[in-house]
């Protein structure tokens, strides 16, 4: 079993507990997760040898997205904004569309800690308003889509009631039978895997949890368009990971990392391959500054991509002023339009998808 993490001891947990109240109450803090409260746990950035981004033969009817934590919120934002492109979405420890309403205080006070106060109808109405103004795609695109929602009763960062609000939201646009609910009784905040990461109930970097749970496979199966069955999980080939220069594709206003990654099975490089695409979004403290390439290499998506003619796109966010932990923008640090097609990060990810061959 591979493990690349530093487990929290009791003293460390107490230090984190001391930081938590200040973080939740401060209006200047903009992270879903926790800061590093002691020496030796700071960011350790990693470089990547970038290659030209390839243009592939892709199936535009088979495009899906998933994300964890801030990536879970961003997955929903991408899905709703570009519902003409995405056929499915999965949120892991995330929440309702436009939850924060551009207010970092609301993101922490309501979305993270008091989701029972969310009025779902307000967010549904706001979504219809966005569509009426052509700020997002026509909402009728959602009616045939498939959605997966994961939440754990042991999540101390995003209370699982938020997942109920997200389900209520999606039920306004697509049948309840198209929504798959997933959970794990012991999982802390993070992304459960089959065999990689911290102990399942241990919160902290790399925010990947060894829960003997192949969540990546379950998310892909639950969002596969038309409920098509997936072939069995395969074995990833590390040589199929391609690192590319995001800065040549994405505007600086998106505040994304210098590079992103793609997993491209060899069959998907063949002319006319018509492979599907899945966008996998990391969470806060999960970009290369904090966990290097661990999410890209070990989340479990690549194994399924190998046997299912699927390309996995791993965009990478960047840390910076107002976003010290490299979160995806689910509260407005890139601008008030952050949940719309014109939002900087949504535009950036869409530009990458265009660059690899999606119309």
Major beta-sheet overview: 8 strands, mixed
Question: Roughly what fraction of the amino acids lie in strands?
Answer: 15-25%
Mean pLDDT: 90
Q: Structural class of the secondary structure composition?
A: alpha/beta
Range of helix content: 25-40%
Rg calculated over all Cα atoms: 19 Å
The parts where pLDDT drops under 50 for at least 5 residues are: 1-41
The count of domains is 1
Number of strands: 11
The largest beta-sheet arranges its strands as 4-3-2-1-10-11-9-8
Distance between the termini: 41 Å
Large-scale geometry: globular
What is the N-to-C succession of helices and strands? HEHEHHEHEEEEHEEEHHHEH
Count of DSSP helices? 10
Account of the 3D structure:
The chain has one domain (46-356). Helices cover 28% and strands 15% of the residues. The chain contains ten helices and eleven strands. The chain has an eight-stranded mixed β-sheet with strand order 4-3-2-1-10-11-9-8, with helices on both faces. Helix 4 crosses helix 5 (161-171). The model is unreliable at 1-41 (pLDDT under 50).
């Amino acid at each position: 079993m591979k493990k690349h993490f530093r487990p929290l001891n009791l003293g460390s947990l107490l230090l984190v507990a001391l930081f938590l109240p200040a973080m939740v109450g401060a209006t200047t803090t903009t992270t879903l997760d926790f800061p590093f409260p002691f020496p030796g746990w700071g960011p350790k950035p990693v470089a990547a040898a970038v290659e030209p981004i390839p243009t592939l033969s892709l199936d535009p009817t088979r495009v899906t997205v998933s994300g964890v934590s801030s990536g879970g919120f961003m997955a929903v934002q991408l899905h709703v904004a570009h519902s003409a492109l995405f056929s499915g979405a999965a949120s892991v420890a995330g929440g309702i569309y436009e939850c924060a309403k551009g207010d970092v205080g609301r993101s922490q006070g309501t979305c993270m800690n008091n989701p029972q106060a969310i009025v779902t109808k307000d967010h549904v109405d706001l979504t219809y308003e966005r569509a009426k103004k052509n700020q997002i795609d026509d909402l009728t695109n959602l009616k045939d889509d498939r959605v997966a929602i994961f939440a754990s009763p042991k999540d101390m960062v995003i209370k699982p009631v938020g997942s109920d609000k997200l389900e209520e939201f999606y039920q306004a646009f697509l049948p309840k039978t198209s929504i798959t609910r997933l959970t794990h009784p012991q999982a802390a905040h993070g992304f459960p895997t089959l065999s990689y990461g911290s102990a399942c109930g241990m919160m902290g970097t790399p925010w990947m949890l060894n829960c003997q749970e192949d969540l990546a496979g379950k998310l892909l199966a639950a969002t596969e368009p038309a409920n098509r069955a997936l072939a069995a999980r395969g074995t990833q080939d590390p040589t199929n990971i391609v690192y590319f220069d995001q800065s040549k594709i994405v505007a600086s206003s998106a505040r994304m990392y210098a590079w992103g990654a793609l997993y491209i099975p060899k069959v998907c490089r063949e002319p006319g391959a018509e492979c599907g695409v899945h966008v996998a979004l990391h969470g806060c403290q999960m970009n290369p500054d904090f966990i290097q390439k661990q999410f890209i290499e070990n989340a479990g998506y690549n194994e399924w991509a190998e046997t299912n003619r699927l390309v996995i796109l791993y965009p990478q966010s960047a840390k910076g002023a107002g976003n010290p932990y490299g979160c995806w923008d689910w509260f407005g640090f890139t601008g008030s339009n952050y949940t719309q097609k014109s939002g900087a990060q949504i535009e950036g990810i869409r530009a990458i998808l265009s660059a690899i061959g999606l119309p």
